[in-house]
Specification:
It is found in: Endoplasmic reticulum membrane. Belongs to the OST1 family. It contains four helices and 34 strands. With 513 residues, the protein is mostly beta strands. It is globular and about 110 Å long. The N terminus is likely disordered.
Length: 513
């Protein structure tokens, strides 16, 4: 299991690119595998490091700001960042930037080792330009960790507070010696009954350190137990379909969720009376159960629906006006710790708001969110996300280039009503995703996309003025392909009439002629 987890993580963290001219999937590129005895070259030192751990959501978010100095005699452009082998399988959103120039793109980062016998796995970060001897660069390293929080106690009463335990090292993960460092931990409340060591406490923030002259790879395990009377919303799988109908001018979106609550399980049986008493119209007590989900939609969204394994769920509310569109979902039952709930939601939108045709060529540009879904204060994490972009029938030359970590990508055919060959479909799979990816966009275009914030030199390129990871896809839609379905319908109807005329003209009487 450990080997499979590490293998999946390494594939997940590979920078992804895809080019398809014949609708055939190309395999992801391989990466360097380092031996178990590998030690990063000691060519850097950390002059100053500040690590921030945020526990305000149902997953852990970490940001490390560090001043890195080249202590070698020659220029260096490869920097290593370590994780324990048991942790790296839950890492997502790993990103490294120059803190002094945040508008620039993130540095290329990839997993370079997944030896199952090695206790440490490494990210290899490549600087855009080599760091000269005695020179410094300030890095901002950010990532999130899924499934690292555990309820303690694991069983609670229905109206009891929930406490989580977080275990971490007071020293930052590092392959290099650090002159000075400290770790700050931000909790959601001030109710923190148990913790180890004696940190400096200021409200809901703990500070460990400063520590001086810390060797590379040193750890000092600490833990804290804090109140978090909110659900730990976790989706084992999300399937998201975005379907384009250029003849109808419609963008149909459907999302299918397999949801669970990773919070504390109930100690006693669920009581509907107790639940109703604690959740009245004008008062709602804090609870660790999932009782509702808020899904912000694009302005102008229409015809939403909410169904589960039984059928239509009427306990939902859709509000739409000129300023917002919001879908409020209430499951059939409150989802307590250890419980599961699977459902699907969908809606329609105006295609012209997200699709435009390029002035030259036969290409179209589609821009839709990579991930929508619930937006909750406690956060939502996804173990696996499958996104399908169902393009019009006859779309060709599908390509994409993305900084979003993917484990798989393919272009296939999806057959639906009145299709002849099937609709071109792009399928992307990502792992360890959090609700912060709602802000990441999916751009489908027939032009080459430039990541740099510059004026593109090509008339068919697009300027992407966003500081987040984007997914760019290219496809061509010939003029002749647009008439494929109308011609098919016409031929089908004509065939029916011709068949009826031929059958009607036959003499099937049994009398004498």
């Amino acid at each position: 299991m450990r080997l499979l987890s590490l293998l999946a993580t390494c594939l997940y963290l590979l920078p992804s690119s895809y080019a398809d001219d014949s609708n055939l999937t190309e395999p992801l590129s391989s990466h360097q595998i380092l031996p178990e005895s590998f030690k990063p070259p000691q060519v850097f030192k950390h002059v100053n490091l500040v690590r921030n751990i945020n526990l305000e959501k149902s997953y852990v978010r970490e940001t490390i700001n560090v001043v890195v100095e080249n202590t070698d005699l020659g220029p260096q452009d490869v920097y290593y960042f370590p994780f324990n082998a048991d942790t790296i399988g839950h890492i997502g959103g790993f990103e490294v930037r120059d803190k002094k120039e945040p508008s620039k793109l993130s540095f290329p980062a990839e997993v370079v080792e997944y030896d199952p016998y090695s206790p440490t796995q490494f990210f290899r970060i490549t600087f855009p330009s080599p760091l000269q001897p005695a020179s410094q660069v300030t890095l901002s390293i950010s990532y999130h960790i899924l499934s690292s929080l555990a309820p303690l106690p694991a069983l609670v009463e229905q109206n009891e507070k929930q406490y989580l335990k977080s275990t971490f090292s007071t020293y930052s993960p590092s392959c290099y010696p650090t002159s000075k460092q400290k770790t700050k931990v931000k909790f959601p409340t001030v109710d923190i009954p148990d913790y180890t060591f004696s940190p400096e406490r200021q409200g809901s923030t703990f500070t460990y350190g400063p520590y001086e002259n810390t060797p590379a790879g040193v750890e000092q395990e600490a833990s804290a137990r804090y109140e978090f009377t909110k659900p730990l919303i976790y989706a084992t799988l999300l399937e998201r379909d975005v379907e384009i109908s250029q003849w109808g001018g419609n963008l149909a979106t459907e999302e299918r969720y397999w949801l669970t609550n990773k919070g504390a399980n109930l100690k006693s049986q669920f009581s509907r009376v107790t639940w109703a008493a604690s959740n009245q119209q004008y008062y709602s007590a804090p609870t660790s159960a999932i009782k509702s989900l808020n899904v912000p939609l694009k302005i102008g969204s229409l015809d939403p629906y909410f169904t589960d394994d039984i059928g239509n769920v009427s306990t939902s509310r859709f509000r739409s006006n000129a300023k917002e569109a919001n879908l409020e979902l209430k499951p059939r039952y409150p989802v307590f710790g250890g419980w599961k709930y699977s459902f699907r939601i969908g809606w329609n939108g105006n295609l012209k708001n997200v699709l435009r045709k390029l002035k030259t060529g036969e290409g179209y540009v589609l821009k839709v969110p990579f991930l929508e879904g619930p937006k909750m204060g406690e956060g939502v994490s996804y173990e696996r996300v499958d996104v399908r972009v169902i393009l019009p029938e006859g779309a060709t030359n599908v390509k994409f280039e993305t900084a979003v970590p993917l484990v798989a990508s393919e272009v296939s055919l999806h057959k639906t009503f009145m299709d002849t060959l099937g609709r071109t479909t792009l399928k992307l799979t990502a792992m360890n995703v959090v609700d912060g990816s709602r802000e990441q966009d999916l751009i489908v275009s027939p032009a080459k996309i430039f990541y740099l914030l510059e004026i593109p030199s090509s008339p068919n390129s697009i300027l992407v003025v966003l500081l987040i990871a984007l997914l760019q896809v290219t496809y061509d839609y010939p003029f002749s392909a647009a008439f494929r379905k109308p011609i098919t319908i016409f031929i089908g109807v004509l065939s029916i009439f011709l068949t009826a005329w031929v059958v009607g003209s036959l003499d099937v009487s049994i009398g004498r002629k």
